[in-house]
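#lab-general

N.A. 3:47 PM
ok so I finally got the sequence cleaned up, no stray characters, all 185 residues accounted for. can someone with queue access submit it? mine expired

B.Y. 3:52 PM
send it over

N.A. 3:53 PM
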Amino acid sequence: MRPTRPAEAERGSSLWEGQEALWRLPPEEPQDESRGRSGQHSLIFAAIVATVIGAMALIGLREKIVRVAPRAAAPYAALGLPVNIDGLAFADVRSRVEMEGTRKALVVEGEIVNLRRDANSLPPLALSVRGADGQDKYAWTARAPKARLEGGEKVAFRARLAAPPEDGAEVLVRFAQNENEAKAK
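B.Y. 4:20 PM
back already:
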């Protein structure tokens, strides 16, 4: 027996000549959609975990990253995560002019703090007197009070300048570059 119409046979149902019978393909097993979705969820979860780990590495290793690529310091600072490569900071810096007989002397005092957990060497201090226009009027270096600071240690410093410029408006204190760092640049 043949199907009455070929198109009906292709669709999966037909009437046979002389008989009324319905012919169908066997039912397909339903596909488990959760398998496809769980695969997608796994990929999304893996991407989120990788992003979080990458962000944590960028934050946790920022000092090393900036040491290798100094220009990376600006984006970190813009995000509120400044990078201190030296691991040292100044605290309670103040300056005053004292009279020594008939001569003036500029005295700059403060503390140096080791921000690291490990011992840290202290470079010399670079000081400069700036005018109201922000230009350096006079610059000098002073020895650090100690060669090394233990982790978290503080040390007081004092620097003097005899006969400071009369038009000085502010004093800038920073760490001088080590000779090895200057040669590397």
